[in-house]
Design brief:
The structure holds 2 protein chains of 2 kinds. By secondary structure, chain A is of the alpha+beta class. Chain A contains 21 helices and 7 strands. In chain A, the strands form 2 sheets. Chain A has a 5-stranded antiparallel β-sheet with strand order 4-3-2-1-5. The chains are: A alpha+beta, B alpha/beta.
Chain lengths: 558, 426
Amino acid sequence: MRRLFAILCCYVAASMVSVQAQEPVALTGDIQAAAMPETTPEKAPETVTSDSVETLLTKLTAVKLSKALPVLEKLETQGGAALLPMFKSMLAGDLYYIKSSKAVIAVVKADGKLTGRTVLGNQDLGVIEKKQIKKIRVNNKLRVFLRQAIARLQIGAPDAELRLLAVKTLLNSLNSDTVEILNSARASESDEDVRNMIDLALALHQSASPSSETRYAVVAVLADSLEKEARNKLAEIAEQDSDKKVRLAAAKALKKINERIEFYDFIDQLFFGLSLGSVLLLAAIGLAITFGVMGVINMAHGEMIMLGAYTTYVVQLMMPNAIEYSLWVAIPLAFVVSGLVGVMIERGVIRHLHGRPLETLLATFGISLILQQLVRSVFSPLNRQVASPEWLSGSLEINPVLSLTLNRLYILAFALLVFGLLLIILRKTSLGLNVRAVSQNRDMAKAMGIKTGWVDAMTFGLGSGIAGIAGVALSQLTNVGPNLGQAYIIDSFMVVVFGGVGNLWGTLVAAFSLGIANKFLEPVTGAVLASIFVLVFIILFIQKRPKGLFPQKGRAAE
Amino acid sequence: MKLKSIAAGVALSLGASVISISAMAAETIKVGVLHSLSGTMAISETTLKDTVLMMVEEQNKKGGLLGKQLEAVVVDPASNWPLFAEKTRELLTKEEVDVIFGCWTSVSRKSALPVLEELNGLMFYPVQYEGEESSKNVFYTGAAPNQQAIPAVDYLANDLEVERWVLAGTDYVYPRTTNKILEAYLKSKGVAAEDIMINYTPFGHSDWQSIVSDIKKFGGEGKKTAVVSTINGDANVPFYKELGNQGISSEDIPVVAFSVGEEELSGLDTKPLVGHLAAWNYFQSVENDANTAFIKKWKAYTSEERVTNDPMEATYIGFNMWANAVTKAGTTDVDAVEQAMIGQETPNLTGGVAVMNKNHHLSKPVLIGEIQDNGQFEVVWETEGVVAGDAWSDFLPGSKNLVSDWTAPTKCGNYNTESKECIAAK
């Protein structure tokens, strides 16, 4: 086993060298329809006089992007809360106008069709043809304005969460106008979180007060907050305030906040580590069966992952209107596809090379190249776009300094689930019993009437199928292309060898400890050095303990 | 038996075609195309090969050059850097081409360069690069750092009032050199060292969690922050995705990228990218008659859904300039064409005129665009006039005093203005 690992290490080193030599690769991606450049209207009114909302909206369709801001400002003062839906759809990039009538509408895409609604009055306009309408464009400057305008208008929203978001957005743009809005909102505010946030905003505004008593009180309010605005203000006060008492109080508060942040940073990094570990676990767990339990060095394992990812892509192609559910279809399908390919490889090639590990290694390496080329020929060498469902994007915000990204969170849970299921299969089912019997003593198992050939095929299929499931998860994190598997094969072997061949629990521990080690090293050494250090550590570790963290004991180990 | 006869037939016809090619060779001007058609770079470089072939076809429709037809000779260096040198040699000695359009990566250019200089070939290099080079045998039609990176930083500092900078890049020569130049430039503008964060990641990096979280923290300290990204290749997709997931929008921390263009965006889910920026000398969305005509031709030559991008424009400009220089020189002789090239003017696709300078770099306009959700760019800023490409950066101590001037009497790619001598001649 040690010699094989040395070969693998050589392979790693070689692949690293080749990576170093690579040069700018343009972002891959297949080519989709690109809109022809559209002509911007020539007219650009320089000044906006006081107009009705309707004329302002018409004006918005005609002005240049750089001149749109004054129009929007006028719209906010003229239209007020009635324009909230329009501002929202403009921020989302869903605002269009009908070319013939210059009427501004919000367009929603559903079931592959565009439907329009008037922005004032919210009337349904039914299905709209793409060529009838033209988009009202936005840039970053307008987006900043829109976000703040929405916040100003939404401060009286019935939903407390929206109000909280509104106040948070206003933290960046505190002036006498917004403070007035906040003051009046505070009087009628019932939700405690929102009230606290308003207090924070008011405190931030008061920090410039000439009275040192007020500033002292401000520091006390800011000290309780983890918002970055509060922290920055405290740092400013601690350095610049004229009153020593206020300065000291600010410095003390800042120290406390920083201690809290440090703690949350640690949790953050731990989560990153667990998340990387869960990816490693998913990638390696299939290999833990084929390599760990069966002892087959399967260099095509990465391609099983790739096939799973491509299955997700094909599923999404088949059901373009139900991306939200596509993953649930893709998971069993990927298992079946990769599992079947696995069974075919086992029956067709590996079975004939039983007991000849080097030949198996070479043969499966060949298979991996064939599969890659197959995918290149069928799907093109370009990366494929796999969409992320809505429920997988965004993050779970625990407090202003700690938020966990949802996709990572789900994948962590998913990896553990797959691990649990696999454990149950191996421990509690008759297939599991057979697998363990065959891997411990093939001849004896045969003598007991177990169809070893069938068990081999099923085991290999199971390992490959699980690799396919890993591919579905990875398609949400990384690029789906012919080289997807190559990026994970080395990591997978590393995890299995480090954890101890043939031991699923070892794989679990190894995956998470490598993930966490990598993530705690990364801020210190940088991403490139971190992975090198981890690799060097494993090589040294294997020298000392060739059988990994949890070696198999007993006769079966020989 | 049947198989054998088919094979014989194929062999015969192959032989015949070889003969016909060599028979034609006498009356044609040969244009070498040295772009990878397989391997990692195929995705980007195949587009440029098609562009050259389209230009050749068009030139032939116009009657060729000097009364001769043009003939494209396409070779495949297969994204294999040493093979670029071999293929260059093959093009120059065996095929005896008069000009080569080729290379994408800096390392492939560096590989072909000694062969070009040894055999006195002529190459047009159409991609933005890190500068610090000037060869008699190469014309650089892509952007030098002062035509892409520096204006982008100026835009962020002046228009968006950015005060803190994250320089994030893939770990290899182009990002490292560009970031070195940018760091020196920012410091010369009075940016403190603690307001610059530099980060390198390996090729194909996919786990951006901690880096994006670091950027978020770095940007949360009260000063407006921007990311200047020289991240290359498909690592960009998970990077932008992670930015979106961690709730960093383009209004909070804009990312300006130097390697993300229309081709790269096509086929991506651009939702998380909307509002982020890219700096180039060309965008497909620029409204100009020449551009509209070019896009139309390109779509007719390839297919409706193809997009155009900056290196394609650089190829277009390079090809037109070369055609004009050959006409002016009246020959395809490398030395004559090289001298005729300097001062050549040809219209840009985005309006205005590109000029070939004495240092073999172009004067071009610089545009900054915001990514839209249709995968195109909306131009938000452009330079007043054109910017002359600078072969040797003024912000690096090693190249501050160097200039490149290929006209007589200097005729030197790295002339030291302080010691008044040509380094290459020593």
